[in-house]
Protein: Alpha/beta fold hydrolase
Organism: Polyangium spumosum
Amino acid sequence: MVLLSVLDHVTRAMLVRRGVESRFVETPVGRVHVYDARGEGAATPVVFLHGIASSSTVFAPTLARIRKASRRVIALDAPGHGLSGAPWVTLAPERLFEALSHVLDRELDAPALVVGNSLGGAMALRYAQRRPERVAGLVLTSPAGAPVEDPDERERFLRGFVIENMGDARAFLARLNHAVPWYGPLVAPDLKRMFKNPSVRAILESVEPRHFFAPGEFASLSMPIHVIWGKSDRVIPACCLGFFKEHLPPHTVFEEPEGIGHSPHTEDPRAFFALVHRALERLS
């Protein structure tokens, strides 16, 4: 995890120089690293939640720009990810939610626009269900959490997160992106190490049917919801997008951009920033 760990620390130094606070919050699950940026604008606070085997570093370019419009921007590293410490307990999905919700309950002083990618999108949706008074709106990019009913498809989906060798790492990068970026070969060894991280393995190996969303769970969500699902996303099965289209509230806006895979925040940071900025403007 050498290269990506260095990137996390370099990003931290860069953000701190720009006035972003980097600190830790103790939770019942572990010590969680938080970026907290006081913004220059008056718009709704923004929260960023990253996906599995990732970190808040992936949102750094958007964080640095969106703080000009928002009055506060927060980005979290999940336990065992990024700069956060290893969890004190086995990191099942419900314990991950416990840690993230503990931080947000403590830190948010006003309803926020919560932006989540992949597993972070599932956590954002769950937080909106449990704490609707704290969520002004949702921007979800390829959110996880939808059930995969077909056993063979479910097996292929979960097997895709088993990265045993460099071939697996390269294949995952190809599924993750519309086109593998130039730095793909550089991060492939770190990707293999990241997916062997005990926290990552614990989440993946503890997933059970009860962790997935049920069809009726979203009926009470009244806040604006924007879902981005890249046409080239090959990480999460297409049936999951179908589930969200069928069961998220009718006011949900769906976008399926061409030339984008699972991570629009890294594949097209400018377009991603513009999307978050538009969502903020609608709330204001």
